[in-house]
Amino acid sequence: MRSTASVEDIYKIIYTEHHDPYTVLGIHPLVYRKKPAVAVRAYLPRAAKAFVVRMVEGGAEERVEMERVHGEGFFEALFKGEKDVFPYMLLTVDPEGGEFLFRDSYAFLPQLSEFDLHLFAEGNHYKIYRKLGARFVEIEGVGGVEFSVWAPNARSVSVIGSFNEWDRRSHAMRTLGSSGVWEIFIPGLGEGELYKYEIKTADGHVVDKTDPFGTQMEVRPRTASVTSRPAHMWEDAPWLASRSATNIFEAPVSIYEVHLASWKRRGVPGPDGVIYSSYREIAPELAAYVKDMGYTHLELMPVMEHPFDGSWGYQVTGYYAPTSRFGTEDDFRWFVDYMHREGIGVLLDWVPAHFPKDAHALGRFDGTPLYEHADPRKGEHMDWGTFIFNYGRNEVRNFLIANALFWLDEFHIDGLRIDAVASMLYLDYSRKQGEWMPNEHGGRENLEAINFIRQLNWVIHVTHPGVIVVAEESTSFTGVTHPADNNGLGFDLKWNMGWMHDTLEYFQKDPLFRKFHHKNLTFSLLYAFTENFLLPISHDEVVHGKGALISKMPGDYWQRFANLRCFLGFMYGHPGKKLLFMGQEFGQWNEWNHDGDLDWNLLGFEAHRQVQSWVRDLNSLYRNERALHEWTTPGKVSHGWTCTTTSAACSPSSASRRTKANASSSSATSRRRFTSTTASACPRRACIAKCSTAMPSATTAAASAISDRCIPNPSPGTIARTPSCCASRRWRYWCSSGKAWRLGYHVSPLLHDAGMR
Q1: Maximum CA extent, the chain
Q2: Bigger pLDDT: 286 or 690?
Q3: Which of 9, 419, 448, 597 is the catalytic position?
Q4: Over the stretch 463-482, which tens digit does the pLDDT of each residue have?
Q5: Is 472 known to be catalytic?
Q6: Per DSSP, what are the bridge partners of residue 194?
Q7: Catalytic annotation, pick one of 472, 502, 531, 585
Q8: What is the rounded distance in angstroms from the CA atom of residue 459 to the CA atom of residue 621?
Q9: Which of 486, 676, 690, 737 could form a disulfide with 713 if both were Cys (CB 3.0 to 4.6 A apart)?
Q10: pLDDT-based confidence at residue 315 (cuts at 50, 70, 90)
Q11: β-strand partners of 533
């Protein structure tokens, strides 16, 4: 039989060159010799015979043998006189006589809507991780996995895996319009299937890539993605409710930074001989220790999948996958849930500043610079040997923002510490003259990255009140923790690197010479209230020859411990939230080694137990004394609300409005702090009500939904610095005599993200 498909299409299918194989394969009504007919075509290169199986009246099964129209395995069956498509299955017979019955992938319509693709293209689909990647779906009563991947410059893309013998000919994907997204549904797939995307580039090269949105991966050094479906039942609702009502600026934040692989090693050696404790094994012991020591939060060095242990997780290859070193994605959900039930917040280190060049990862994903800049002056970190994200590309920005929300939504994470923010802010970061490109105004600021950071922080605080976003930012960039819609970057906290370096330099000097360096202790108080600071003694300070904290101290054995206790006391008395890396709380002598675990045996010595007891007492004092953790200083950057007494105008407070001078100002419109005893008096609700006539209808709808979340002030009749009903510091409406309104960003992504479309 001569095929009803064109010869050109058949060869494109055979050589995986077709951008939309669905137009050739599957079931198609057509006209054959001027009469209606239906053709079923399939490319089955490993089959000796193939049949179309359909159900007929009475529940009987009809088998129609397909004709091999090309020796490479292109089959077709023609149903003459048929006018409509019908449900069917394919039956293959291999050369040994084995039979395999299955549903045809090419018989199903695409599942991504045009609206999804539009939002992704404009960078505003904040739930895109629920659309791209490998998702378990049911279509027309048939269960399976829907695969979708963004590769706009690829010639063709196929799903390969353990289910099709890693043969790219079996499941070639189709493109969806001009979106650059490729898609296929594979019926019958279950959990635990290994898969990758095999991409044929524009110049004909073939590369295998891990799924950028894959939620589980093989244990390194293997690199395949794994199909998985979350099944964990969360039990932390009380914690989440308490978190959303907490103002972290007035709450104690004492963070214990941990590298999970080297805190304590237990369990059975893995494939590479390394012994790791699983998420479920380590959680009870770690939670008990953190609680006993009095910390409020646990910060994990990156748990996103990474191939090289020595990168400590900062060279990420699986942004949506918790590392399989310690278990599955549900195991990590259980870990976070357990911490919440024990009253411990969980922060994650997150790395949007760069990504590694591993061949299976994001680099040159479709054969071209896709996630990274093409120009190495903007697209590569020469010092680290990594690529830099292209923050000006909508889809890349969407990938990163959705990833941040993914960890908050799917794993209930309480905060993100953004790594290497300084490298994002400056185009000339660690570059010599001529190695960087100025921005459009001739400056060295990376405007695309700054806009990305502002949008990221705005979205996080809009959708997840109470979540903490921390910047590891080592320069004097202005307004890191100022509101994003007030020319700031919108972070909650900034690492005080100046305090850390000055204080460590002071304490490392012999006491005889410290009298000449007291400025190292006092200088930080000149700027301590210009940002919302966190005082970090992190992993970076106890590696690479810097020595552990106690080994930095001068003097003999007794003096070193005395200096260490003095340093820690000074740290807890200094303004700012606290962070201490594991091992320093009991005075570990050795530098941190990621290939081992902490020297817990040192707690057999009295001097080390005394340091541990001192840190425990400091945490208790810090948590119980409001003066040590509340920020009430005039001029402190905060994000409460102010309301006017003479007009309908409402606006978020800023540093300039928080000063004593402004508080007593006799300007025409005097401002007062909001007093609330009922939810109906929430300033958001009042602001919305008075400005609804000036807002577009879509914005009004969103605003109404926001105001419904208001809750009463926890202290009725008192003046609140930040009313609890306004704990979400990014709902910002500016009304001026009922004539104007604004948001930090336009409202369409907000409506979509909140499910109000």
Answers
A1: 103
A2: 286
A3: 419
A4: 999 999 999 999 989 999 99
A5: yes
A6: 226
A7: 472
A8: 35
A9: 676
A10: very high
A11: 494
